[in-house]
Amino acid sequence: MKKNKKGLVFSLLSVLMLVLILAIGGKVYMSNKENENIANQRTAALAFKEIHPEVEEIKFVEQGSRAGSGTWTVGVDVVINGKKYDEIFVKDGLMGGEPLPQSNKNVSTEKTTKVVYSNGKEEVLK
Q: What stretches in the chain show pLDDT beneath 50?
């Protein structure tokens, strides 16, 4: 009987350790994925601001994900000249969405743009 109890205790401890390791590994993986998404969002926002320097606000409405083609995409609301547009960004800038007004390249490079990331954090880009 004592052998069976030791085996049962060992099995339970093994299962608990496995669950703990998987939980920690999952948390680390998800944290890394969120950090990658925020970094991609920032890169996309900077690329879009280069194309449309007059953009007043960029708000990421989701985290972003990789499509079947492997391209990272994210839904975004942008505000240009007081009007909101629903857009889709890729890491290097604009992919598609509503038609945007003609870009005004004469806008001062000092004009700031408010960026709201999917995790709720905000940044002002110059």
A: none
